[in-house]
Amino acid sequence: MDVNLVLRSTRVITPEGTRPASIAVSGGTIAAVLPYDAEVPAGARLEDVGDDVVLPGLVDTHVHVNDPGRTEWEGFWTATRAAAAGGITTLLDMPLNSLPPTTTVEHLRVKQEVARSKAHIDVGFWGGALPDNVKDLRPLHDAGVFGFKCFLSPSGVEEFPELDQEQLANSLAEISGFDGLMIVHAEDPHHLAAAPQRSGGAYADFLASRPRDAENTAIENLINQARRLNARVHVLHLSSADALPAIAAAKAEGVKVTVESCPHFLTLTAEEIPDGATEFKCCPPIREASNQDALWQGLADGTIDCIVSDHSPSTADLKTPDFASAWGGISSLQLGLPAIWTEARRRGHSLEDVVRWMSEGPARLAGLTRKGAIEAGRDADFAVLAPDATFTVDPADLQHRNRITAYAGKTLSGVVTSTWLRGERIADRGTLAEPSGRLLERNN
Ligand SMILES: [Zn+2]
Fold first, then answer.
1. According to the CATH classification, is domain 58-366 in 3.40.190.10?
2. Distance 236 CA to ligand 1 centre (A)
3. Assigned fold of 5-54+379-397+412-432
4. Contact at 8 Å (CB) between 144 and 180?
5. If you measure from the C-alpha of residue 139 to the centroid of ligand 1, how many angstroms do you get, rounded to a whole number?
6. Where is the Amidohydrolase-related domain (predicted)?
7. pTM of this structure
8. How far does residue 242's CA lie from ligand 1's centre (Å)?
9. φ, ψ (nearest 5 deg) of residue 267
10. Cα 320 to averaged position of ligand 1 atoms, centre (Å)
């Protein structure tokens, strides 16, 4: 075992808790987590980060990179730089908003080719489930996608149509045949169609157009389908906390359902969104403070499995001041860790909780057995955080392509001082290394 790097800190977050430790790295893999004052092997370099906390690199399973096809919105170069700057070492790319969408093996190969030379962190791909591509799901699975995304209501782009309940059942039946995973944008189209649709800049009108009932009903239907077909399903970007009791009950019953929420639902509230501020628009929407409290309860009791960004940028001109017509999507890839840490600590949670939600949880969802924890045998991926340092969000400091953010001007706790990918420092206080990320395929 040739150890080439020892990363030392008084606070290393391991699955057994936080402790002073020296992490021995060999060939990009964690060889051992040694006592703090362990002797540095001959030939190894010591990096001592002092009292900064070493976390397992974050895993973000919900990123819209939009490359190729809508690269004026985002791209692999800029998205993965933003991720690296924010302590994320693995991302999974959503199958839509790029052209082509990731709905056939041929399209997957196009996307992999584009990503290969631009990836500053490790990148994997979700496939897409459309009304007419059931025959493509098995080949995509065999080609290494991590699962399949579908919508139950219009996606916002015409090349990625939604599934009705019968089409969902057909796709779930196909996927459960190879124990695949379906990840679902769960808003019920009938409830959306029945909601009042008013254009203009008033956030209250937009909120009323995407009612909680739309999420609650879609999630209940999804749970019923998962139970009936013994399929694995995952609820994307949960906003309505009203759905938590049904999800908790389904889990207790043994239905294979998991759920994620996002930093914007957990740190921003409808009450604070100025009219016309469509950088806050996403679907489902950011809801009231009382709803946010209930989401945090869902995290605390384990009903919510993970927190991921749903980074979904666009160009500034698509963020018109009219909530009805503006592009829906929040750009926060680089800010998820400090945003969540700031709110988590205020609510009495620890950094270990944050690691469970943002690293270990998403890694487990995706079956990424080499990611998500600091222990021997895993990839030497780390986020080093100064948890008590604060900064004020300046869009000019962001690495994603269109520097639009719902967090502008906010003061957050937690500065990512460096990020490490397989034992190499890829970000050093905003200075990014050349791309060294790998393309990942599902490994089970
Ligand atoms: Zn999304």
1. no
2. 8
3. Urease, subunit C; domain 1 (2.30.40)
4. no
5. 23
6. 53-425
7. 0.97
8. 20
9. -130, -15
10. 20
